[in-house]
């Protein structure tokens, strides 16, 4: 009898496979980074073939770490960096171009052109999203318009599109071309009510419908295929769970009731609040998106605040400035000083996402004096994450009418005590880390396991959730008042840097 569920977690900087038992505890894990490709300023790409190679490696090594065989695995779930776009030849399996990553800004002219008729919110009523470089639809249009031969191949039915979840599932199963509702909701091409591709928007963007994957439930008892017998899992296992990474973390955090929210600290930062079966339009710069859909049950929706650069800013200090040798060193360096020395770091490397949606913004460090040293740089880097999260939380409170009493957090940066304590101070609410902090992979596992009855219902999953650590705000701190006010001033200095 199968005793585990496997999850493939394909992220912006790395790919991992995690094997979970029924208690939601990891019993085997392996993770590998892949190359970040920067062809031009503002352009970010990944090699899809490298990602598939890394996926095979981490699956094999995680299975070995768990001491598991294919017969021990009840199901496989997939989670992914959402808006990252791949177009490939369905006959050869070879991409026509590198994957265009969600952070990439090359589609700014396409978005501006589309916005001339109806403004930035031209499609928001249908898709819940503003016109922005973040989303997949304009990226597909860019590939069709700029890569020789792709449009003709798409018209023939040979060129097909997918976010990374679709790419991974297609390779794992040997040709199943599907995506779930959460990933489809990040393309700017799916109608939130019908949960189907919007033919009007496809026509406006010039994207042939036959390129697109079939939209399925996040947890699907019908399954979409099995892992290949000669693949890294070593046998045929149902592949039946698929969630975009932030929705997967929401499921992993057991946010199954309207009003429950989580914040994931990864390459970027993403806060999601469950709004139940109700579509809640945002008036405050948030995204209206899918939270999950389990089987034939009604779709569950969410409000999301997306921040482009948080953990990536730490990586930038490591890789571009060589200020630290490894990401965890940022905390010790930040603790060599008592405060930020008066500087504020606004990391608008890819423009500003929620709640501003300013593609014309670029990064800025303000408040520099000769007093400032590298410790202040480190502290300002961590504080930038906390301030951006506060901006999103303020918008979420305004849209939902619900004031959060505590914030569930997950992702790699939640092991940074200095950041988490400062986050609690800035938000003025407790910050809670669960026992399993890598909730993205866990959520994908839950979706797959639910489909095959490994977990019976959401109560089963909620029972697995437990508190590891809570940070509470320090009374009388100025982080939420004076410092946050200075941050808001700093943000305005990044506007209008890129001229149209």
Concise overview:
The chain is α/β, with parallel strands linked by helices. The protein contains 16 helices and 20 strands. The N and C termini lie far apart (60 Å).
User: What is the share of helical residues?
Assistant: 25-40%
Number of helices: 16
Strand content: 15-25%
Strand tally, please?
20
Which parts are unreliable, with pLDDT below 50 for 5 consecutive residues or more? none
Q: Report the C-alpha radius of gyration, rounded.
A: 21 Å
Provide the structure class: alpha/beta
Average residue-wise pLDDT: 94
- Measured distance between first and last alpha carbons: 60 Å
Across the major sheet, the strand order is 14-15-13-12-18-19-20
List the helices and strands and how they pair.
Blueprint: E1 4-10, E2 14-20, E3 26-33, E4 45-46, H1 48-66, E5 73-80, E6 85-89, E7 99-100, H2 108-115, H3 124-127, H4 136-146, H5 150-156, E8 159-163, H6 164-173, E9 178-180, H7 181-184, H8 199-205, E10 214-216, E11 239-244, H9 245-252, E12 261-265, E13 269-276, E14 287-292, E15 300-307, H10 311-319, H11 329-334, E16 344-346, E17 364-366, H12 374-400, E18 407-410, H13 417-427, E19 431-434, H14 439-451, H15 458-464, E20 467-471, H16 479-492
Parallel strand pairs: 1-5, 5-11, 9-10, 12-18, 18-19
Antiparallel strand pairs: 1-2, 2-3, 4-7, 6-8, 12-13, 13-15, 14-15, 16-17, 19-20
Helix pairs in contact: 9-14, 10-12, 12-13, 13-16
């Amino acid at each position: 009898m199968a005793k585990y569920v496997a999850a493939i977690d394909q992220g912006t900087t790395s790919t991992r496979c995690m094997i979970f038992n029924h208690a939601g505890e990891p019993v085997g894990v392996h993770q590998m980074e892949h190359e970040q490709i920067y062809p031009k300023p503002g352009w970010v790409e990944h090699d899809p073939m490298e990602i598939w190679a890394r996926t095979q490696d981490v699956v094999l090594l995680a299975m070995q770490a768990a001491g598991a065989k294919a017969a021990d695995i009840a199901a496989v779930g997939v989670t992914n960096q959402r808006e990252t776009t791949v177009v490939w030849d369905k006959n050869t399996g070879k991409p026509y171009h590198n994957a265009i990553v969600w952070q990439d800004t090359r589609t700014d002219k396409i978005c501006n052109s589309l916005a001339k008729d109806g403004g930035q919110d031209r499609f928001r009523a249908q898709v819940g999203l503003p016109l922005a470089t973040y989303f997949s639809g304009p990226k597909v249009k860019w590939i069709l318009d700029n890569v020789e031969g792709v449009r003709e191949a798409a018209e023939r039915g040979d060129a097909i599109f997918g976010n990374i979840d679709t790419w991974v599932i297609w390779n794992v199963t040997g040709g199943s071309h599907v995506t779930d509702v959460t990933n489809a909701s990040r393309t700017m091409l799916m109608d939130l009510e019908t949960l189907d591709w919007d033919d009007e928007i496809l026509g406006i963007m010039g994207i042939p419908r036959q390129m697109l994957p079939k939209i399925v439930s996040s947890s699907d008892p019908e399954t979409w295929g099995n892992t290949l017998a000669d693949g890294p899992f070593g046998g045929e296992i149902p592949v039946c769970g698929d969630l975009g990474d932030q929705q997967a973390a929401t499921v992993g955090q057991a946010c199954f009731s309207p009003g429950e929210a989580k914040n994931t600290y990864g390459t970027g930062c993403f806060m999601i609040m469950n709004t139940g079966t109700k579509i809640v339009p945002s008036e405050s710069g948030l995204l209206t998106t899918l939270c999950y859909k389990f089987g034939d049950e009604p779709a569950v929706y969410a409000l999301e605040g997306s921040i482009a650069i948080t953990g990536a800013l730490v990586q930038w200090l490591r890789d571009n400035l060589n200020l630290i040798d490894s990401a965890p060193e940022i905390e010790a360096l930040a603790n060599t000083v008592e405060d930020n020395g008066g500087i504020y770091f606004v990391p608008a490397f890819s423009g500003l996402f929620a709640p501003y949606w300013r593609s014309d913004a670029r990064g800025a460090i303000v408040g520099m004096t000769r007093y400032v040293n590298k410790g202040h740089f480190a502290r300002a880097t961590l504080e930038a994450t906390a301030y951006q999260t506060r901006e999103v939380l303020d918008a979420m409170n305004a849209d939902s009418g619900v004031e959060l009493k505590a914030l569930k957090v997950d992702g790699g940066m939640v092991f940074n005590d200095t950041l988490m304590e400062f986050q609690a101070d800035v938000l003025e609410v407790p910050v809670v880390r669960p026992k399993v902090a890598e909730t993205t992979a866990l959520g994908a596992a839950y979706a797959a396991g639910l489909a095959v009855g490994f977990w019976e219902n959401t109560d089963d999953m909620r029972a697995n959730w437990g508190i590891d650590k809570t940070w509470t705000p320090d009374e009388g701190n100025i982080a939420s008042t004076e410092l946050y006010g200075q941050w808001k001033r700093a943000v305005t200095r990044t506007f209008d840097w890129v001229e149209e």
